[in-house]
Amino acid sequence: MAGSATTLATRFQFCALLLLISSTTVLCGNINSNLLRENERSCNKNNKAALFVFGDSLYDPGNNNYISTNTNFQANFWPYGKSFFSEPTGRFSDGRLIPDFICEYAGLQLIPPYLQTGNQHYLYGANFASGGAGALDETNPGLVVNLNTQLNQFKNVATQLAQRLGEEEASALLSRSVYMFSIGVNDYSSTIKGDSKQFRNMIIGNLTSVIKAIYKTGGRKFSFVTLPPLGCFPSIKAQNAGNKTNHGDFCREDLTALVQEHNTAVSKNLEQLEKHLKGFMYSFFDFYTTFYDRMINPTKYGFKNGESACCGSGLYGGVNSCGGMRGIKEYEVCSNSSEYLFFDSVHPSEMAYQQLAKLMWEGSCSVTGPCNLKSFLSL
């Protein structure tokens, strides 16, 4: 009997110990979870805005490093990145891009590619841009992350923020953040199907759908850039050699006209969105005019060459061979890329991006309006 009583008592003590351990584990788990949430809130307690970036190679920090594609849509090889990072990062330039400089001006850390593995909390934003992407799903299908997929990635981030910060704090973060877009160039670079006006309406229609979806999620501040003077890029001029225009160059005037019509239509569309979406604000940067002025007056802005690429081959450096990884191994690269407006046949140099970013950040209404990005972040 005594042995049975001792055994029974021992069992009760053991069960009590298990219950204590279990309760402590649950309590610690809850405490750790709450502490993590409070820490993440305190990381952004100064109410800094985040940047959520969408688009193409002008904004892609290296997302295409992590997808199944080919080297025509990648820049993860030398000499890309040589001027600032001293190694290729996947950015289509010799250094930083516009979003990188905007982060610097806003006092934010550089935003890594969304697809890069690692512990990203997204408190300062996320970059979904993919080199070669267009507003249309049909643009470079299977080789890039199209705009609709980028939208789905953003929705996933918004869900994660709500889980980590709570609905109220996540909603406040999304509403004060800025949503940056650079999209459309690749749609017009591909084959235009059917009537050009109908094609343009499809591009703008898709972009508008994405804007409205982000607005519905809580976004209110949007940044856009006009399409650049694509018809006069080194790659286009090299392809068009022999067809000199009335201006005495090899620009494609038909492509220039399409781009200008697109920019006008986007401007009108943004004005309508501002009227019909309560609280919707936007900044529309005149990339076309500011960049074209640097092409024809390079020395005015500190460049020695405004029409040829620093890295590439052929006329104007317009053959897309920079790095020798795109089917043509032979290429030349200049010694000082800051003297060139273009780094490769279709992408600006870091120096050009820095100048453009500065105008987007604090430029007058004549180049970026109705608000510049600096004023955005103070609202």
TrEMBL record:
Superkingdom of source: Eukaryota
Claim: Metal-binding is one of the keywords in the record: no
Keyword Signal among record annotations: yes
InterPro entries tied to this protein: GDSL, GLIP1-5/GLL25, SGNH_hydro_sf, SGNH_plant_lipase-like
UniProt similarity note: Belongs to the 'GDSL' lipolytic enzyme family.
Keywords: Signal
Signal peptide positions on this chain: 1-28
Annotated Pfam families: Lipase_GDSL (PF00657)
Protein name: Uncharacterized protein
